[in-house]
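explain this:

___
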Amino acid sequence: MGADLVERACRHVPLPRSGIDAEGLVSDPEARAAIRDVLRALAEHVAPNGEPAHGGVRLETPDLVLREFVPADWEAVHAYAADAEVVRYELWGPNTEVQSRAFVDAVIRSRAEDPRRAFELAVTLRSTGQLIGGAGLRVRDAAHREGDIGYALHPAFWRRGFGTQVARALVRFGLDELALHRIWATCHCENAASARVLAKAGFQYEGTLRAHRFQRGEWRDSLLFAILETDPRSDA
């Protein structure tokens, strides 16, 4: 009939009688997640990439799509932001639902800044559109063309090379599209996994920042990494 068939929204969602609450609403968590994914796929089809009508940033890797956040993303954000293991080395979290909602709202509002300096993006699976984490690049000093990156993924998607894909995508965006000269990142001295990701993405270790952050009631050191526009890329 000429209608668009949105394959990612074609899902069979089993719903047992016990999955409906007294008010007639779906209460089964797996069914809710599946329905949310279907609605997100439809929304992204109508407004490509889940972005506002005026457009936005979309970065692609072999397995992932980094796109702008939309309000409905907060539940998927909360799924990783409330996880104690995810935020073990972070200055934030574990989040409450209120904090996860506030984060998504703040990110969406920040897109109105002109010129835009913060690019916080949802990390989604290219195959299904499922949101599995968040990543960001911030322009810290426009005059000196300097920015920094950060990322967090749901534990179910660790050790698959996704973190490296995210870091490389942010580097390409920052150096090629934003014309940055230097992009840096820090990580907790005990966060060996993040240090490996940065090294694989082409960042060079520059040193240790002593007593760099006050975290969980004590000062801790940070490892400093950076990549310059003149450095070789690591896209292999």
